[in-house]
Design goal:
The chain has 673 residues and is α/β, with parallel strands linked by helices. It is 33% helix and 23% strand. It has 20 helices and 28 strands.
Amino acid sequence: MSKQRGVPVQVSGEPGYAVRNIRKETLTEVPWEGATTIAALFEQSCKKHSHQKFLGTRKVINKEFITASDGRKFEKLHLGEYEWMTYGEAFNHACNFASGLLRLGHNVDSRVAIFAETRAEWLIAFQGCFRQNITVVTIYASLGEDALIHSLTETEVSTVICDSKQLNKLAAISSKLTTIQNVIYFDDAESDTKLPTNIGELKVATFFDVEKLGRESPVLPSLPSKNSIAVVMYTSGSTGLPKGVMMTHGNIVATAAAVINVIPNLGEKDVYLAYLPLAHVFELEAETVMLASGVAIGYGSPLTITDTSNKIKKGTQGDASMLKPTLMTAVPAILDRVRDGVLKKVDEKGGLAKSLFNIGFKRSLDAIEGNMFGASGLERTFWDSLVFKKIRAVLGGNIRFMLCGGAPLSGDTQRFINICMGAPIGQGYGLTETCAGAAFTEYDDQNVGRVGPPLSCCYIKLVSWEEGGYRTSDKPMPRGEIVVGGASVTAGYFKNDEKTKEVYKVDESGMRWFYTGDIGQFHPDGCLEIIDRKKDIVKLQHGEYISLGKVEAALVCSNYVDNIMVYADPFHSFCVALIVPSQPDIEKWARENNVQYNDFAQLCEKPEAIAEVQKSLSLAGKAAKLDKFEVPAKIKLLAEPWTPESGLVTAALKIKREPIKAKFKDDLQKLYS
């Protein structure tokens, strides 16, 4: 019998099937007594772990540009070892920055925006603001011009903190930013970005200068309360202009406190690799968990993680090889790429190496899935040392636990990472609106395709959605819209009461609930599985319902598909798809089949290439048991990848359906003509 992880609970509000974490009868709100705000948690942790390594950064030794055969230039970095700052030093830096901010002339009643890539100074600036109870607006460094103007104008930000390379973006739109008075930028000695000499009437200073101001002329702190708004976090805008979610100090601390209980033996011996955007709630919460636990955080970037990453100079170690982390976060798209990369290398080696990998993987998989003929503990140790040790070295060789979130992770990828990396994956489910806190897989749960029981900071309730045919009375498992209530549920949308009232509800007992729009079902052990999304369901001409997200998750398993958006017009009986194909795979197929083409864009137009990808979709659909009407009848191959910079995917690499539909409107119409 499986271990019980969540139990039904009676709660107020709209009737439904509610579950709580089995470990806690009352909701978790703090990691320890007195840590009710981010400011208090940071100060107390820095004092407790004062001499421990905290924030690590790699120095750029040199950079060079190489020219590819098609004329494009690529930057390659030679990076040095990690240079560390202790918890005590980081606290002093944050205090100095807080004082310097006021000495620079920032009005404490106005907001500060951080518009930068993930790095140590981001976190120090963030914590510094809370020393003076200043609300921080977080903005993705990849955000487009219109969304950036919208975010900064709506929140009436008066000080922007940014990378030196973002200064030019701000300079270009400065005439449209009426509330901004100060710009503080991280001065990178190795940066070759030409900096604007002035940005209108704005006061411009380096991060170092602001810290120096504060060190020379300290200001007494003015600390926040639990209900103070800590962050206005702009969502990645997958459905139009980004919305600002208001998070209290209590919200962020409650989620962190609950996650700390889930990761076993978390503490000073751990090292965490940070590379996802801190403007995303998943990374922000992960780093809050780490700093609360005395973990060392080493900063990297998605383009420098491994020895073979795009920006790493040949012969230079990637971030993971240099840091040797024990913990890291990942979004499913990145884990899918790790899996594809490993399988391609195994294929290329072929022969004995491929046979050994396949045998070792099959034996280990049988053992994990409880097959009585699977590998024993001793045999698994043998396979680990013979086959999987080299694969684990890609991420430094010491990973003991991975946190995954931002989108659903396929069961195949989860099993693959479990076996090849030798580490459990805690797959989380949460939203910006719930401060990333909702459900989290426990380390000893061997099942795949689920997101675990509710975190101890919240309750999860399923509410029947009659129109979609999902009811809490369904057998064998209750199903319905996922509604999250408790300490992690945020204060609502900034300056958007109408939308707030639509999806947030406060019940008669004062409990705050967020209606997610996701459809889930509870397994008998109290673990949640996401099975659909209300907005992704389209009714076709003859009455069949198609779940776009479910179909995309199934079809992305084709090795030809790098990214996909399925589209369904309710006036037709079939669906279509836009596909960004995997360039190496489709070009390899073209070579093997003597398909002539001048460049990749031309290959994507070839009827033979379209037919080959279409065939692979049919096979993937069959393997996932999709109905015939769920497999796209027509497809369009697109040569240009979808990136956060292009505005077509979020920072967590989820597709942005509306912008994609708008950009490729004519292509979609042609597929139906």
